């Protein structure tokens, strides 16, 4: 740890990866990629999903043991074929999905597998806990070492991983999308920690999609596309436009291609009055929500985490069964939520929030997953499936959505995030829905796929589908939606329009104000405000104190356990 | 991942190997075939004359048929990420029920078999309800049912065997008893005249038919798709409109029903129902499914694989028996084969092993150079 930033010019780099190549069966994942990291430097690794970032970092971390090319640490060639080799050379990686044991304490996680023991072989608990406390203090984190990790917030867990890496005497730390689940204040704290690490001479490889973040933290940036290196820049001498061009390799399709709304005098495809539900699983409750979605309209739902956005979609889709009360009509017919199966038969489709956990059977094929919800369309009187018709329909949909897959019989688990999301969409569209409910449709997918999914939503709307969309990204909602409804603690607190002639115009500040208006709402006599007229009163916090105890985090962000 | 999937013309060229690739898993994994062939070769090499005899082979399969039928039901449950430990006991209960219906009530076989299937299905349905509505893990629920069904079986029979060869006043078998015996004894046959003078041995026929029917159900029907989806990701299955509770209950009910079907066959084969009949059969059934490529994690497995797995266990028993290997060693060998089969089905495991060996030598060379 004696190497300091000013010595880097002459000293051999901390890490030099040269001409790295890697093939998977049928796929050339990387070829001829170079990466250099000096002590005290933050190198950003940028690229779309599937560009090879994870493969490159997995090689460095010893996950993939066979690769082409050479790796040098401090000028010495090294062979990294297992995570243990990587640890021996002072390389640690913090994966996007954190590798902590939720049931164990903070200290037990930090020293997992390397617990200090007495002569008799028992664990020296006290020592472990005091050393953990020291490490955490060094990161500016005040956390009892005995607390179970499952009771820590995501941001804290992230820093526990950092502490674990530091306890290993790490020289090079790889962070894969470390901020994807963090709120702004937590991102700032993580960046402060990163700066203190680099001041100690640690090299950082930082993988992120968020360009604005890289401007703040990175010294240099290396861009990957389709497994090759397309550019290396000093962060100070580049700009976002250039980085996007290097990343995407083509002029980016317009990110928000929403065409102006046609006049919607047609009766709504989906109408909900007084939706009230208290989910049995402890998710946020929804109180008396009214909404309509006309044919060809895209309606967005905004709100803080815990405001009940996803719950509105899930209640409409029948996930809470008859526990969801209210009056519903779909295409003019009365509809009662009963079960997801009933919802699909009634013309609804849901793109769920978490595609891996809720939407896909990862070990099964593209064909199996795409047709799963629509098997009734291909059934014979004997309840068997007509394979040929099924394959044709799936191929047609997969082609229309431009899913990049070697074939229909490929496991969806092998596809990139964006392509998995397209398979989920294919599954929904094969049921020919008249109302499409989408929950975080572009979370965790790269910018190219994002633009494609937005274009698809626009195309579906222009064909007459009604779309109700939930998103944590306000620019996405503002860019794509004709109307935005704002939820706060399960109640509607605002409605904004794309078209100024129809009501207040959607902008980030107004939406955020409405999203944090819960005290005012609790004070309102009706318990519910609707329409643009209510907004003025909503914006001013009222002193009434009988509001529900505060639970919402005041960051507009999706995941926040413990809130 | 580099090419956008194109429409028809692109795929027609690859149609032939594509079809072959689709057909291959239908027959189970290649490795199990190799195992089957190996055992066959050993059988022929050591006791060729006796082993290849048709009577020996049909007897061997007939002996295992009831367990094979159980294995089909267990495979269904395993694909939904569950386990059914109760099938052996339920089969024992059904065989006792069949023998008592015959001995005490002189019922005809066409009544006994469906009734036994109903009894088994009832046990299975209770398993299914316990795992879904009461949310008891299937391992625990069916372990309890293993004990319950065995207890009821012993209570009902008063711990005594019941014979299925019932002699009439003239000293010959009664017609109903004779018909019942044809379920499990070579030479007696319900199908005489249809399939030649000697007909075909019923346990073997029953096993084949059960395999074909359930293979078609799993690979062709909507229900089959739902079974795989529920095992692969229950949440995704539910959000795709599948009634997960129904699928799980149905699968346990079918498994119980097959155990009920195997009961009379087993009783006829042994010419009596023993209160301990079927003890430990569930383990053979699970072993057959696992050798055939089913994963206890769910979402994976085929009836064709289970069929091959059952054949492997059958022929193994037979070959070892012919070579006078003691029962004790037979158990040890059977267990080792299960482990071996599972390892063979994990190419990643084998590849990793090979890589580790080569890398060790490579790292050694690197250090030598220094």
Automatic annotation (TrEMBL), chain B:
Q: Where in the cell is it found?
A: Cell membrane
Pfam families assigned: BPD_transp_2
Q: What kind of membrane protein is this, topologically?
A: Multi-pass membrane protein
Q: Which domain of life is it from?
A: Bacteria
Can the keyword Hydrolase be found in this entry's annotation? no
Q: Where are the transmembrane segments?
A: 30-48, 69-102, 108-126, 200-218, 239-265, 285-316
Quick check: keyword Coiled coil in the entry? no
Give the UniProt keywords, A-Z. Answer: Cell inner membrane, Cell membrane, Membrane, Transmembrane, Transmembrane helix, Transport
Alphabetical list of PANTHER family matching this protein: ABC TRANSPORTER PERMEASE PROTEIN YPHD-RELATED (PTHR32196:SF21), ABC TRANSPORTER PERMEASE PROTEIN YPHD-RELATED-RELATED (PTHR32196)
Q: What is this protein called?
A: ABC transporter permease
The root-end lineage is:
Bacteria, Bacillati, Actinomycetota, Actinomycetes, Kitasatosporales
């Amino acid at each position: 740890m004696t190497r300091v930033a000013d010595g880097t010019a002459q000293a051999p780099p901390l890490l030099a990866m040269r001409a790295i190549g890697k093939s998977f069966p049928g796929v050339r994942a990387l070829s001829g990629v170079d990466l250099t990291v000096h002590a005290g430097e933050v190198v950003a690794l940028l690229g779309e999903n599937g560009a090879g970032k994870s493969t490159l970092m997995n090689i460095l971390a010893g996950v993939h043991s066979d690769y082409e090319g050479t790796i040098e640490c401090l000028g010495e060639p090294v062979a990294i074929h297992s995570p243990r080799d990587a640890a021996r050379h002072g390389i640690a990686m913090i994966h996007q999905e954190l590798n902590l044991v939720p049931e164990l304490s903070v200290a037990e996680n930090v020293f997992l597998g390397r617990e200090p023991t007495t002569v008799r072989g028992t664990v020296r608990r006290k020592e472990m806990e005091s050393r953990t406390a020291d490490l955490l203090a060094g990161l500016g984190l005040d956390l009892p070492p005995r607390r179970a990790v499952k009771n820590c917030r995501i941001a804290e867990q992230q820093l526990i991983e950092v502490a674990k890496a530091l306890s290993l005497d790490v020289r090079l730390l790889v962070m894969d999308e470390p901020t994807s689940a963090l709120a702004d204040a937590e991102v700032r704290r993580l960046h402060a920690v990163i700066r203190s690490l680099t001041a100690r001479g640690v090299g950082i490889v930082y993988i992120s999609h968020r360009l604005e973040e890289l401007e703040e933290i990175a010294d240099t940036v290396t861009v990957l596309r389709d497994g090759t290196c397309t550019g290396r820049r000093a962060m100070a001498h580049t700009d976002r436009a250039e980085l996007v061009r290097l990343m995407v390799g083509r002029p980016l399709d317009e990110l928000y291609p929403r065409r102006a709304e046609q006049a919607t005098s047609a009766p709504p495809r989906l109408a909900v009055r007084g939706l009230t539900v208290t989910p049995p699983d402890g998710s946020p409750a929804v109180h008396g929500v009214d909404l309509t979605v006309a044919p060809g309209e895209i309606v967005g739902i905004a709100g803080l985490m815990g405001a009940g956005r996803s719950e509105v979609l899930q209640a409409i889709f029948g996930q809470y069964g008859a526990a969801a009360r209210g009056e519903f009509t779909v295409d003019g017919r009365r509809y009662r939520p009963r079960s997801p199966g009933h919802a699909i038969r009634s013309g609804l489709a849901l793109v769920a929030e978490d595609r891996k956990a809720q939407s896909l059977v990862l070990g099964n094929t593209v064909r199996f997953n795409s047709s799963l919800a629509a098997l009734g369309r291909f059934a014979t009187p004997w309840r068997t499936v007509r394979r040929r018709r099924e394959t044709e329909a799936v191929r047609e949909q997969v082609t229309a959505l431009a899913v990049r897959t070697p074939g229909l019989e490929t496991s969806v688990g092998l596809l990139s995030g964006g392509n998995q999301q397209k398979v989920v969409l294919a599954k929904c569209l094969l049921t020919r829905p008249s109302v499409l409910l989408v929950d975080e449709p572009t979370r965790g997918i790269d910018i190219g796929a994002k633009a494609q999914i937005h274009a698809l939503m626009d195309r579906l709307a222009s064909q007459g589908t009604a779309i109700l969309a939930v998103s944590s990204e306000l620019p996405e909602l503002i860019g794509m939606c004709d109307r935005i409804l704002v939820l706060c603690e399960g109640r509607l607190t605002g409605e904004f329009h794309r078209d100024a002639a129809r009501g207040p115009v959607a902008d980030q500040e107004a939406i955020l104000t409405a999203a944090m208006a819960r005290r005012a709402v609790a004070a309102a006599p009706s318990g519910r405000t609707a329409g643009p007229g209510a907004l003025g009163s909503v914006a001013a916090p009222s002193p009434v104190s009988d509001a529900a105890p505060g639970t919402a985090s005041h960051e507009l962000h999706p995941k926040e356990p413990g809130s | 991942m580099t090419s956008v999937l194109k429409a028809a013309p692109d795929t027609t060229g690859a149609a032939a190997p594509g079809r072959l690739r689709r057909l291959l898993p239908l027959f189970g994994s290649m490795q199990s075939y190799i195992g089957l062939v190996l055992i066959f070769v050993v059988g022929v090499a050591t006791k060729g004359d006796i082993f290849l005899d048709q009577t020996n082979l049909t007897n061997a399969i007939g002996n295992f048929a009831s367990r094979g039928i159980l294995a089909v039901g267990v495979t269904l449950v395993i694909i939904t990420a569950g386990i059914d430990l109760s099938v052996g006991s339920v089969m024992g209960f059904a065989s006792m029920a069949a023998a008592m219906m015959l001995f005490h009530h002189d019922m005809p076989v066409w009544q006994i078999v469906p009734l036994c299937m109903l009894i088994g299905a009832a046990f299975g349905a209770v398993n299914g309800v316990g795992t879904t509505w009461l949310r008891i893990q299937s391992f625990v629920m069916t372990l309890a049912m293993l004990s319950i069904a065995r207890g009821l079986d012993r209570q009902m029979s008063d711990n005594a065997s019941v014979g299925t060869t019932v002699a009439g006043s003239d000293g010959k078998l009664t017609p109903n008893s004779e018909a019942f015996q044809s379920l499990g004894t070579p030479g007696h046959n319900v199908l005489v005249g249809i399939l030649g003078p000697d007909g075909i041995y019923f346990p073997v026929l029953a096993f084949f038919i059960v395999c074909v029917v359930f293979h078609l159900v799993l690979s062709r029907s909507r229900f089959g798709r739902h079974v795989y989806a529920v095992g692969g990701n229950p949440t995704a299955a539910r959000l795709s409109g599948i009634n997960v509770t129904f699928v799980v209950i149905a699968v346990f009910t079918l498994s119980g029903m097959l155990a009920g079907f195997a009961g009379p066959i087993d009783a006829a084969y042994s010419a009596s129902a023993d209160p301990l009949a079927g003890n430990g059969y569930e383990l053979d059934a699970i072993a057959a499914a696992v050798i055939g490529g089913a994963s206890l994690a769910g979402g994976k497995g085929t009836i064709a694989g289970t069929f091959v797995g059952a054949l492997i266990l059958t022929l193994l028993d037979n070959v070892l028996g012919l070579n006078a290997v003691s029962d004790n060693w037979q158990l040890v060998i059977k267990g080792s084969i299960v482990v071996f089969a599972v390892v063979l089905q994990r190419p990643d495991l084998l590849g990793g092993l090979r890589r580790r060996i080569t890398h060790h030598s490579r790292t050694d060379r690197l250090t030598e150079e220094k």
